[in-house]
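Q: Given only this backbone (160 positions), what sequence would you predict?
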């Protein structure tokens, strides 16, 4: 009588489990990168929407507002935020000094967002890279983040 055992050995099962584990870790790593790129694309899009709303506000009032929430409902449906944190914004005089809308001289602005891609995002090629730190606390370095507490991020900043 022939006794044949059908099935897999323990080593064969361990090899298959190891291969599945390696493949799943590769897939998850590439998904994480895609998610970062997606969030960064949304941030750049939000900044562009805010720029348009700021220009509409300026056309009406001949100055820029003190806060981005002044744009809500009239110039933009909802002021976008980055995970419920407002984007960095300062209105300034033409010389780059701090101002308030009450003074009537806020003729420029600095607007920024921290991107997860640090320096590899294509948007960094066209951003302002404007360092006006003593006045508005937004740094301009693409690879260091928009504020000192944003290490590990890139700073995408625009101004008019």
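A: Predicted residues:
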């Amino acid at each position: 009588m022939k006794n044949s055992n059908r099935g897999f050995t323990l080593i064969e099962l361990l090899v298959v489990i190891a291969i599945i584990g390696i493949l799943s870790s590769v897939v998850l790593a590439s998904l994480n990168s895609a998610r970062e790129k997606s969030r960064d694309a949304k941030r750049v899009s939000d900044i562009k929407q805010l720029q348009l709303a700021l220009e509409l506000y300026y056309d009406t009032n001949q100055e820029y507002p003190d806060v981005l929430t002044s744009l809500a409902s009239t110039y933009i449906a909802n002021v976008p935020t980055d995970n419920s944190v407002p984007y960095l914004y300062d209105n300034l005089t033409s010389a780059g000094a701090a101002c308030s809308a009450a003074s009537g001289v806020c003729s420029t602005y600095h607007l920024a967002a921290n991107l997860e891609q640090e320096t590899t995002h294509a948007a960094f090629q066209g951003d302002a890279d404007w360092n006006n730190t003593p006045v508005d606390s937004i740094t301009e370095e693409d690879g260091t983040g928009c504020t000192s507490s944003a290490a590990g991020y890139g700073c995408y900043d625009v101004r008019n």
